[in-house]
DNA sequence: CAGCGGAGTTTCATTCGACGGGAGTGCCCG
DNA sequence: CGGGCACTCCCGTCGAATGAAACTCCGCTG
């Protein structure tokens, strides 16, 4: 069954890339014989692969399929050089992310040496309401999704993370008004995020461009540059959309 | 069934990232009602997603799962800054690839503006025997895999691509002797590949580092730099392997 | 060295869910 | 307006997934 296979994949987390069969069966809540059989089958398709000893890891084929045809690829490809420049400019982290359910999903993240702490990872998730790009994208999402966020739990990292619905509501309104979001100390006391939207041809935000910098009063100084880069990425994106490939 | 789901994923190619349900059913050779049901189910899991109109595309979740825990991620992450430098140095393309079956699979590819033509893509495949990194990695693979390559068909791009087993055999031997492979005009007449191995702690090559440059007599001039970079990637890789994460 | 226990795979009867024919729905185009 | 197409839904049949249990292969321990 398909759902079981997905459960198996989800047993792997960014921290633990290799697991044993019994470990998988425990995490996925599957019978061990089922797990064994499914792992064998998935391995046959290259979606999983066996490492040294009895370990199992995600297979190259899954990576290949996921990357090959995803609409994400274009976005990432287009944004990469801009992110590079941005990283140099701010001297810390630059990241590109999209909204997935109630989480923010990081498509790409570049860091300069000696940058402030940053919990995000490429292909990693964080609760949308706890991050600058998350609040920004949520502010432009369907009203129903916003309601869901307001109704749901609001996980916090520090005392400054948005913890109650009222504060979230005003943060969303402010995000729409300003066109950007800052997250001073939301995740780490010493760090501050700054996020702006990357817009498609129709004006709807498809992704967030953000930087993580030290949490001091120089944060807003990066805003103009960030906006300019986001605008440019949008431009190139629309051009790439019009005439695919190269 | 699982095999069917994989067939569906494989219906998507790098060129065509969005398909209709009937198109998928045709390519995957599945009954349309089966396809419809499976697509719906896969969409539910986020492995596929529906675009505008009735189009279907690869879902973000597949990308996420594939990227999140793959051993590839470390390799790519480590190599990325080195590839960037290399791209600047040679002024054309730099790529990182691994051997998958009889194909070479490109993990990362960076290009300088105005570079020579290059058919490769990130997450794309090419026949191993037709490329420099492919022949290099094949030369260090199990003997049985080499035999399979020698026995199998040898697809060619130009008249200079390796087309017969004898030439392949001597190319493999030469690759082992030299520790590098050049591919003058194998894929495009005007371009030449140059590939060296990236080695693990035990000395076995895990990937190939290669550049694509114009097909003239300056090709060998890049060899020392390429070797130095490959060595350094291997070094960092071993360190990252010893103490995971950061 | 025998005996234990945990991990993994294989076997097999049961049953559950996938399959695909066919009907139904909405859409485009003549 | 009516035929054709793309897609989804429904449902009886049947095949394939499931999980208990048996079996194998370790490494440990008394």
What does this structure look like?
The structure is a homodimer of 246-residue chains. Chain A is of the alpha+beta class and 246 residues long. Chain A contains nine helices and nine strands. Chain A has helices at 2-10, 21-28, 32-44, 60-68, 71-90, 132-139, 143-151, 165-178, 223-242; strands at residues 18-19, 48-50, 56-58, 93-100, 103-111, 125-127, 181-184, 191-199, 205-214. In chain A, the strands form two sheets. The first copy, chain A, has a six-stranded antiparallel sheet with strand order 6-5-4-9-8-7, with helices on both faces. A three-stranded antiparallel sheet of chain A has the order 1-3-2. In chain A, strand 4 and strand 5 form a beta hairpin. Chain A is globular. The interface between A and B is large, with 47 and 47 residues. The first copy, chain A, binds a DNA duplex (30 and 30 nucleotides) through helix 3.
């Amino acid at each position: 069954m398909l759902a079981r296979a997905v459960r198996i994949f989800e047993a792997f987390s960014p921290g633990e890339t290799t697991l044993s069969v019994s470990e998988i069966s425990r995490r996925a809540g599957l019978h061990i014989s089922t797990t064994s059989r499914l792992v064998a089958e998935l391995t046959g398709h290259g979606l999983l692969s066996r490492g040294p000893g009895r370990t199992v890891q995600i297979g190259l084929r899954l990576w290949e399929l996921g990357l090959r045809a995803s609409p994400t690829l274009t976005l990432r490809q287009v944004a990469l050089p801009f992110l590079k420049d941005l990283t140099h400019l701010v001297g810390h982290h630059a990241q590109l992310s999209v909204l997935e359910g109630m989480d923010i999903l990081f498509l790409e993240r570049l860091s300069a040496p000696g940058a402030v702490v940053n919990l995000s990872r490429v292909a990693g998730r964080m609760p949308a309401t706890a991050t600058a790009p998350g609040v920004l994208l949520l502010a432009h999402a369907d009203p129903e999704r916003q309601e869901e966020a307001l109704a749901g739990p609001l996980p916090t990292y520090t005392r400054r993370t948005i913890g109650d619905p009222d504060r979230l509501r005003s943060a969303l309104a402010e995000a729409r008004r300003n066109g950007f979001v800052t997250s001073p100390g939301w995740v780490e006391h010493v760090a501050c995020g700054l996020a702006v939207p990357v817009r498609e041809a129709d004006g709807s935000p498809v992704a967030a461009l953000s930087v993580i910098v030290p949490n001091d009063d120089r944060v807003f100084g990066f805003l103009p540059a960030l906006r300019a880069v986001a605008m440019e990425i949008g431009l190139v994106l629309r051009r790439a959309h019009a005439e695919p490939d190269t």
